[in-house]
Fold these 3 entries.
Entry 1:
Amino acid sequence: MHKVTRIKVLKDYRLELAFDDGKNGVVDLSHLAGKGVFSAWTDYGVFQQVRIGESGELIWNEQIDLCPDALYLQATHQRPEDIFPALKHEPVCA
C-alpha cells in the first residue's frame, strides 16, 4: 500500500501528490465535486482543507476520505496489475 506524504492544492480541484516511494503526480478530482458526499466541495474552501490521514489517505472534515492506492494509480498512470502483481492473469492454453 502506498501512502501520500505531501499535498499541494492546485486550481480546478486538482492535487499534486507525493508518495512514500518517491513518485509524484497530479490527480484531477473535478469529476467528483458536487456529487453525493463530495457536494461539500461546492465550497472550494472545503476542498482546500485536505489533509493526510494516518494511513496515507486524503481526508476532508472526517467525512470524506480517498484511498491512497487509487490516488497512486491515477497520479502515476498505472494499472492495478502494475502495483499488485497477483492481479495479473496468465493466459490459459488448452
Entry 2:
Amino acid sequence: MATLAGLGVGGVVGGITGALIGVGIPEYEAKRYEGRLTKGGILISIHSDKTQDIAHAREIMERTGGEDISVSAEETPRAAKTAS
C-alpha cells in the first residue's frame, strides 16, 4: 500500500522520488537518490532483522566500493500499531 501511495506522490514530486517517499524514505534523501540514479547510480536496499547480518551487508558494500551507505530501522506500519 505504501508503494501505491508513493506512486501518487510521484506525479507531484517525481517518479522515483515519490515512490521512495511512499516506502518511507525522507524526501531529502529520496531526491538525492533520484539524482544519483539519473546519473547511472544503483540503489540497493537490504532488509534484515539480525544485527550481525546488517553489519555483514554493510561490510560487503564498503569493501566493494559502495557509497552513501546508511542503515535505518523500519517504522512499524500504522495498521500494526493500532492493532496492538
Entry 3:
Amino acid sequence: MLNGSFPSDWIQRFSDPYAVLGVAITADDRRVLKRYRAVAKLLHPDAFAHAPAESRNFASQLFARIVNPSYQKLKQEKSRAESSALLRLQVRRLCREGPLKPKSDRAQQLMVHPATAVDIFYEQAIAELAELQYEPLTHFDPITVEINELNLVYLQLKMGDMVVREKRTGLVAAVEAKPINFTPTAASQEAATESYARRHYRRAQEYAKKANWQQAVQELKDAIKLEPDQSEFHALLGYVYLHQNLTGMATVYCRQALKLNPKQPLALKYANKVGINPEQPEPAKDDPGNKRGLFGMFRTKP
C-alpha cells in the first residue's frame, strides 16, 4: 500500500465519512471536530519527519483526498444528516439483495445485542477501532472497512423492519430479499426517537454503573451542553464527581439540580454529603421533563 502511489479506487471505496474519520454516526459537531484534529495531527508531515518519503507522501494524499473531504461532509449538522441519509439508502439497497452478513466479529456481535445495549456496544467498538485506525497507516484500510460495516449494521438495527415493509419491484420476489431477522422492541423504538442529550445521559448512566467515571463525566457534559435545564443531568454529574472525591464540583452540580427542581431525588439524597441544606434551596424553575425520573439504580428508597 505504501509504495508512494495512492490507490485510484479509494475515493469511491471509502465514501462513508463516519468510517473515514472513525466516529460514530451519533457523533455531534464537537466530537467530529475533535476527531478530525486528532487525525490531522497523526497525518501531518511533521509526524513523518523521519519516515520514508513514500510514507510521508501517502499520508499527505490520504489526508487531502479522503480525510479532509470526509470532514467537510460531517462538520455541520445539515451535511451530517445528508451523509446519514445516504448510508440508510445503502442499507436499504443491501437488504433488498439479501440479509446483511457482516464479516467482522464486532459487527456480528452488534447484530445479536439486546436493543437496550446496542448504542453502548456500538460506540465503544467505534472508539476502540479509532485508536488503531491511523497507527500505522497500514491499519487504515481494514479498520475503516470494519467501521463502515458497524455503521451499516447499526443503522439497520435502528431502522428495524422499515426495510422489510418497503415496496419492492423487479423480477425478484420480495420474500427472497429479506433483511436480517430483527424486530424492534419498544426500547429500540424509543431510543431511535430520543434526543441527543437524552442519549448522552443514558450512556452516562451505563458508565456510572461500571464506575467508569471519566466517560460518564464527558457524556453528562455533552448532555448539559445540549439541554442545560434538565435537573437529572446535573444531579447525576454531581453524583459522579462525588464518587471521584471531587466534592466541590459535586456541590456545584447538586446545587444546580435542586435549583432546577427542589425535589430532584438523587440531588436530595446526596445533598448533605456535599454541604447543601435541601430545606433552603435556591429559587427553582419548573422542570416538567424531570417527571421521567432516574433509572432504578439512582432512585432513593422510600
